[in-house]
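Lab manual, section 2.4: Encoding a predicted structure.

Procedure: take the sequence of the chain (188 residues), apply the prediction step described in section 2.3, and record the output as C-alpha cells. A sample record is shown.
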Amino acid sequence: MIYKIRSSVTDHDPGKDAAYRTHLRKYDKKNDTALWRYFYWDFFHDGVIENIKFSPDLSEASFEIWCPNIKRYVTEQDYEYVNAKFICTFQSLKWFVLESDEDESATSGGKAYFLSSEINTLDDQMKKYSVPEDEYEMSSLIIELDSGYMSLVFWSMRVEAVEPLAFSLMLSDKQHEVPIFMKEDESS
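Recorded output:
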C-alpha cells in the first residue's frame, strides 16, 4: 500500500480508488468518527483552509475550513451550493508536515484549497508513535492542497461547525444534501 492521495486521483482510475476503499474497510469507524465522517468522501473538496494554529506545547493543531459542497434544493431538480465553515482540531498530535510547492503557493494569495485526502496511509509514522496497549489506534491524514500537502498523525480529532445550529438544521432538512460519510455508505 503506497497511496499519497490514492496514487494520483487525477487519473480517475476506479481501480485505484477501489483499492484505497478496501484499505479503509479494515479500520474501526467507531473510533475517531469525525475523521471518517468528514474525510472519507472529501467533504471539504475545494474548500479554503485558513488560520492553521498550534497549541503552545504543539500537541494540538487546528485550522478553519470552508465546505462549499452542501447542496440546497430550490426545486426537485435545481439546487445551489451553500458554504459552511468548520474548525478541524487534531488532538494528541504526534507528527505534522506541510509540504509546499513554492511556485503554487506564491500565486495562491495566502490561501490553500483542500483537494482530496487519504486516511491512515502513513503506516511508518503511525507505527512509530503507537502504544501497543492503547485501546485506540493512531490515525493519520494526508490532505492534498492546491499548493502541496499537509500530513498529520494524531490520536483523535474533532470537526465543529462554526454555526452549529445552522449545520444541524442542514443535516436534518431534506432540502439540503450534506455529503458526509455514514457507516452504511461503506458497502457502496
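Check your result against the sample. The CA atoms of residues 38 and 180 lie 6 Å apart.
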